[in-house]
Amino acid sequence: MLIPENRTISGVGLGLRRSMAGALSQGVPDAINFMEVAPENWMGIGGKLIKTLEQAVAEVPLICHGLSLNLGGYTPLDTDFLKQLRIFLDRYEVEIYSEHLSYCGDDGHLYDLMPIPFTEEAVHHVVNRIQQIEDILQRPFVAENISYYAAAGSEMSEIEFVNAVLEESGCELLLDINNIYVNSVNHQYDATEYLNAIAGDRIRYLHVAGHYHEAPDLIIDTHGADIGDPVWQLLQQAYQLYGKVPTLLERDFNIPPMETLLEEINQIHHYQDLAAVNNSAKEHHAA
User: Fold this and answer.
1) Is residue 1 domain-resident?
2) What is the pLDDT of residues 224-239, one digit of tens each?
3) What is the value of pTM for the model shown?
């Protein structure tokens, strides 16, 4: 298939889900600048679904966000999977592959993203596995900060752990804005301080999504609701700090019509443009 040469992402993207096939049958809306898939859900399939993927890739850049790599686990990395993944990434000229800074397997798959203990030992372990992944995929690895509900055995803070992995591995960061907010409520830390402390020069792109309020002091990261006001506010702060970073909208279930998704996508565009104007004015004033 013919793929445009320039696959660098910018602007606003959308997570491609199989249920969106009908809505995208007439093409990708102009407001969507790139799309993201979980490769595990698309590798090895054919028929109408793969045609949906190929149509999208012909129009906008594709990036991949994995679900089952088991980055922080102690069982050996699945090198057969990684080799098949590289074939998929090469086929669609995918430059960006990200995965969760978590573990999801032991003797078998745990079907959940479990937090890695925030320790120096875990930092070194994860960094070693990132190097193995990059050697096989022949691409830079992008790690995502996760939402978590317990931090057993931790010897450092979440932000210290994430920054240590980024510094020691040299990998890039997929910064999930919703996860920052969810964790800030569940673990009672200041989301703005976290955003200011992150290694901003490592940010490759952002995720935003909705969540569910289980209790006043417990939020569940669901990707099944509209983006809430606190997350919108934190996203705007991220743009003010780090510029017009490419941003992807995630929606995994309760997926509304494309017109509704485009409302949130256009809101992200608005905040990006507003931050670009404000940051430009600051630079002009400083000069």
Assistant:
1) no
2) 899 999 999 999 999 9
3) 0.93
Rounded to 10°, the helix 229-242/258-286 angle is 40
- 191 is in which domain, residue-wise? 12-286
Within 10 Å of residue 149's Cβ, how many Cβ atoms? 14
pLDDT exceeds 80 at position 131: yes
Q: How many CA within 13 A on the CB side of residue 227?
A: 27
Cβ atoms within 10 A of the Cβ of 190, count? 10
User: Among 91, 82, 12, 9, which Cα is nearest to 53's?
Assistant: 91
CATH (domain of 245): 3.20.20.150
Local structure of residue 53 (DSSP, 8 states): H
pLDDT tens string 90-121: 999 999 999 999 976 555 554 457 789 999 99
Tell me how far CA of residue 74 lies from CA of 80, 129, 270, in angstroms: 17, 10, 43
Residue type, 164: A
Please report whether residue 195 resides in a domain: yes
Selection from 56, 5, 66 nearest residue 33 by Cα: 56
Nearest to 116 by CA among 178, 164, 184: 164
CA separation, residue 279 to residues 57, 128, 241, 276 (Å): 32, 38, 9, 5
In a domain, 3, yes or no: no
